[in-house]
Amino acid sequence: MCGIAGVFNNPNASQYAFLQIYSLQHRGQESVGISSWDGERVRTVRRAGRVLESISREDLSQLSGNVAIAHVRYSTAGDSGATNAQPIVKETPLGEVAVVHNGNIINYVNLRTELEEKGVEFRYSSDTELFLALLESGEESVPEGVSIHPRDEGFLPKILYTLGRLKGAYSFLMMFGNRLVAGRDPYGFRPLSIGRKGKTILFASESCAFDILEAEFWREIAPGEVVVVDEAGIRSYYPFKGTRRAMCIFEFVYFSRPDSFIFGEWVYTVRKELGRQLAREDDVEADVVIPVPDSGVVPALGYAEERGLPFEMGLIRNHYVGRSFIEPTQELRNLRVLMKLSPNRAVLEGKRVIVIDDSLVRGTTSKRIVNMLKRAGVREIHMRIASPPVVGPCYYGIDTPTREELIANQMDLEEIGKFIGVDSLKYLSLEGLKRCVSDRENFCDACFSNEYPIDVNEVAIKRNR
Ligand code: AMP
Questions:
Q1: pLDDT higher than 90, residue 90
Q2: Is the peptide bond before 389 cis (omega within 30 degrees of 0)?
Q3: Which of 70, 138, 416, 429 is the most buried (most CB within 10 A)?
Q4: Is the pLDDT of residue 464 over 80?
Q5: What does the DSSP 8-state code read for residue 375?
Q6: Which of 361, 364, 394 to mutate to test the pocket of ligand 1 (most atoms within 8 A of CB)?
Q7: SS3 for 239?
Q8: CA distance 31 to 25
Q9: Which of 26, 254, 396, 419 for mutating ligand 1's site (highest number of atoms within 8 Å of CB)?
Q10: What is the distance between the alpha carbons of residues 383 and 360, in angstroms, rounded to a whole number?
Q11: How many CB atoms lie within 10 A of CB 317?
């Protein structure tokens, strides 16, 4: 779970990249990094923490040059932060290369073992290093039917060899020399788009990162497409053909920003439709619909509209919460949710409320929210989830708990309802979810269906990120 961005041909490349990943902050808060090409070498700043607090004016002034790439990385428990921050930079047969990556390489352990046996040294525990380790081997391959532009002959066969060895989910950007290479895995698990502003070419995980620069969204990079940008222009290659697509449906449910355009659709439109569909599958009586902010807001709007019920902000979010260093005791953990959300008694007291959230994963957040609503005097609580039960861990780049930690694998619907303390609980059906996207065959919904588009047997160990 990460966000990536790239800028080509702009004297303020690193500042642009900084703004872009600031708008992608929701895709990762653990670490941030920017690399620029200063005309001779790659300059890099990588820090633990969030974009605004961690990257200084001095950092940006050192990141000179017309080309830059940047990354935000998702927070996972027990990780020290900057260790696995990106961009990762290495000396390779192409010179110094910087890479950023969103996704998860599922044959990481096998490939790393193979390369280590050949003497390749690894510095990090992140699968992203594989891009550079494979390039380092110097091997080349060009799939049949792909013809390479003379400008790209010196490096593209090595990159295509690298991508051909990787199995799993990746959207990536590589910077070397005065050049950017971008691409998506053939399944297209994670989004990646191209934008432009005058003569500047931009790349970003989500289109909201073009809006922040008042740039134009140009188009999405297609699944399996590799794009090269240099001073001579843009060239596209489609080396990987014939695979089914498997774009991540959870990007619509929770992960992407509602104002972004990804996978051929507006996230807002799909997310609101999830709420509408949830409402069509429901007939519980209530006085008011309230969202769990922020992720429940858009589906709750759809739900309330569809059912003709009033929509109110029954929970108010404090937007200044950062990382909390509160001790992990049970009592203090319970208080932590109060740092973020507080009950709005004006709309809650004595009411029968429908509470809408985007997803239920471990169930612990909902339990605390329900407790808070009861203390605020609600009469009945009907919890409605705008996605189906999460039953499968993600091996393609979303950080979900292990199978055992997923509450839907431990209890049935009634037991979950009792556990979180509600009068009733209902999820969106899997069939209903699929109806909300325009081409259901092109999506991965393994977290809800346990149908994994790529065999995950090769995931020897759940990656320790
Ligand atoms: P819980 O059921 O306590 O695990 O919390 C679920 C809530 O966390 C959902 O309503 C989402 O808003 C949010 N959420 C869902 N998936 C993730 C994820 N992979 N990482 C962080 N938060 C998530």
A1: yes
A2: no
A3: 70
A4: no
A5: H
A6: 361
A7: coil
A8: 10
A9: 254
A10: 10
A11: 15
CA-CA distance, 184 to 175, in Å (whole number)? 15
- Would you place residue 79 in the very low, low, confident or very high pLDDT band (cuts 50, 70, 90)? low
Region 43-71: what's the mean pLDDT? 97
Q: How far is the CA of 337 from the centre of ligand 1 (A)?
A: 13
Residue closest to 36 by CA, chosen among 70, 86, 71, 82: 70
CA-based nearest residue to 309, from 271, 268, 354:
354
- Identify whether 444 is a catalytic site residue: no
Q: Which two tokens stand for residue 93?
A: 């047969």
- Which residues, including other chains, have CB under 8 Å from residue 136's CB and lie 6 or more apart? 90, 92, 93, 120
Question: 122: closest CA among 109, 104, 139?
Answer: 109
- Of the residues 104, 298, 358, 359, which should be mutated to test ligand 1's pocket, given the most ligand atoms within 8 Å of the CB? 359
The structural domains of the chain, ordered by start, are: 3-243 (3.60.20.10), 266-438 (3.40.50.2020)
Judged on CB neighbours under 10 Å (0-12, 13-18, 19+), 238 is middle
How far away, in angstroms, is 225 Cα from ligand 1 center?
31
What is the pairing mode between strands 200-204 and 216-220?
Answer: unpaired
Q: Whose CA is nearest to atom 20 of ligand 1?
A: 399
Question: What is the C-alpha separation between 304 and 216, in angstroms, rounded?
Answer: 33
The two tokens of residue 224 are 């399996």
Record the pTM. Answer: 0.95
CA of 42 to the centre of ligand 1 (A): 37
Q: Copy the structure tokens of residue 243.
A: 């695979």
Dist CA 205 CA 275 (whole Å)? 25
Per-residue buried b or exposed e for 374-393, using 16+ beta carbons within 10 Å of the residue's own CB? eebebeebbbbbbbbbbbbb
Alpha-carbon distance 342 to 351, whole Å? 17
What are the C-alpha distances in Å from 352 to residues 296, 373, 455? Answer: 18, 11, 45
Question: pLDDT averaged over the chain?
Answer: 94
d(CA 258, CA 261): 8
- In this structure, the residues whose C-beta lies within 6 A of any atom of ligand 1 are 254, 295, 357-366, 398-400
Q: What is the CA radius of gyration of the chain?
A: 23
- pLDDT digits 0-9 by tens, 247-305: 999 999 999 999 999 999 999 999 999 999 999 999 999 999 999 999 999 999 999 99
| Residue 371 CA to ligand 1 centre (angstroms) | 18
Quick one: which atom of ligand 1 is closest to the CA of 367? Answer: 3
Question: How far is Cα 287 from Cα 300, in angstroms, rounded to an integer?
Answer: 14
